[in-house]
Amino acid sequence: QAELKLVNTFWGLHKPSILLPTFCSTIKRARRAESTLEPKSLDEIDISISLPPFWLIDGTFKTVPKLFYQLYTIHTPVGATSNCRILSLVYVLMTNKSEELYQQLFQYLNEIAEENNIVLSLSIVITDFERASINASHNEFPGVTNKCCFFHLGQSGWRKIQKVGLVNQYGDDDNLSIGLQQLFALAFLLPKEIPSAFIILKQYIPSIANAVVEWFELTYVLGKP
User: Fold this and answer.
1) Please, which of 57, 136, 191, 218 could form a disulfide with 102 given CB 3.0 to 4.6 Å?
2) Which strand (E) or helix (H) includes residue 113?
């Protein structure tokens, strides 16, 4: 009962000075000020006949009919800056993942775009580290810049840690886990800065992880031949 009286006293001293209807009206006005005006006629609807300058591409093998090898999807940002969303715009059922088939896919997309007067001003493609798709996008979209997904880099690194039997040590040894995390974080540096940073960093990673460090150097720092 004492607690109840205290609460009542508190609310009695701090009564709201704004009425609920006024508060709701204020919120509605603020929302209208930030919202895009709805078109009043079809003539006011302007749909840009183009696609964004960068694509995010990935394939999945688990959710695909048995007749096919993978479901390949292309995602792009859609909408204005304030309400931009990444949406899947292209779904492709593929029978394999050869460079030739990727090349055919990108050629077909170019043909569809040309037939429908759609501008494919592609400048950046973000994919996993699959060489076949990277080569195909380079061939079909000259001048495009390929960037690889950090999530896939992390997956690849964790598989390597498992393969060399360092899972338990990674969980127990802070020096080891932090060192390997810093190793993969080299991806956030400029490409020209990575080799020198790698040379410095690898000196501080415990020797038990030499197999991981050497694999990372060959695959991502020097690049596979």
Assistant:
1) 136
2) helix 99-115
Hey, how many other C-beta atoms are within 10 angstroms of the C-beta on 76? Answer: 18
The domain of 164 spans 150-221
Q: Is the pLDDT of residue 13 over 50?
A: no
Does residue 62 sit within a domain?
yes
Model confidence pTM above 0.85: no
Span 141-185, pLDDT tens digits? 888 998 888 999 999 999 999 999 999 999 899 999 999 999 999
163 & 133 share domain: no
Alpha helices in 1-94 (DSSP H): 2-13, 20-34
Buried b vs exposed e over 146-180: b needs ≥16 C-beta within 10 Å? eebbeeebeebbeebbeeeebeebbeebeebbebb
Locate 188 and state its tokens.
Answer: 């956030």
The number of distinct structural domains making up the chain is 3
